[in-house]
Amino acid sequence: MSDKTVIHVIDDDAAMRDSLAFLLDVNGFEPQVYESADAFLKGTSVEVVRCVISDIRMPGMTGVELVRKLKGGGSACAVILITGHGDVALAVDAMKAGAVDFIEKPFDDKALLGAICSALEARSADPEGSSVRTEAEARLADLSPRERDVLQGLVAGKINKVIAHDLSISPRTVEVYRANLMAKTGARSMSELMRLALAAGL
Question: Which of 57, 92, 98, 130 is the most buried (most CB within 10 A)?
Fold first, then answer.
């Protein structure tokens, strides 16, 4: 019996499945791959699943629908979504539904491995999520009202141009605010910033 942590990989692209499985295997995890969310649900006892990596756009059940189904069924597993450039708004919806992170394509191997380790550590250290909101609120405490406005626009899945229009500022100014958000919160990626905002109830 292997004592490696099993990571479930769901992607309809065979090349992506193979690539992820290799990456996980050489980094000490035990990958189990599926070509669809339905195949994963049929072939797995979700009660014992700790971590799932799923593409967001797939034939049949999407990554977002999978997250909703797992969370609706009471599963505590961590779901990390792989998303294309145009899917960030969808990924934010998935995080609202309970996904722990999203990684944009093309992604860096270290970023994905870091997301997996963070998700597993968070589940072990704080399974009920009791301290997550407090920490998130603390990291957002120094934001100005306008920075919060920009952050709320990002959480709503709006692009810079739309946020700029809504706030009557220039897109360039929105970029400056976004840089400020990353610096003030210490967020290393857009997904981490989204996670903080959602945890804080924005």
Answer: 92
User: E strands along the chain, which residues?
Assistant: 6-10, 30-34, 51-55, 78-83, 101-104
Chain-centroid distance of CA 80 in Å reads: 5
- What percent of the chain has a predicted confidence (pLDDT) above 70? 93
Domain 6-125 has CATH 3.10.620.30: no
* CA torsion through residues 27, 29, 33, 36, sign: negative
List the domain boundaries for the chain.
6-125, 132-199
- Spatial contact of 148 and 177, defined as CB atoms under 8 Å apart: no
pLDDT in tens, 57-77: 888 898 889 998 888 888 888
- CB of 176 closer than 8 Å to CB of 168: no
Query: Is 88 a residue whose pLDDT tops 90?
Result: no
Both tokens of residue 17?
A: 């499945």
CB of 51 closer than 8 Å to CB of 7: yes
d(C-alpha 132, C-alpha 128), whole Å:
9
130-154 pLDDT per residue, tens: 577 788 888 889 999 999 999 999 8
What DSSP line would sit under 158-193, residue for residue?
A: --HHHHHHHHTS-HHHHHHHHHHHHHHHT-SSHHHH
Confidence of residue 96 (pLDDT cuts 50, 70, 90): confident
- Over the stretch 30-50, which tens digit does the pLDDT of each residue have? 999 999 999 999 888 777 888
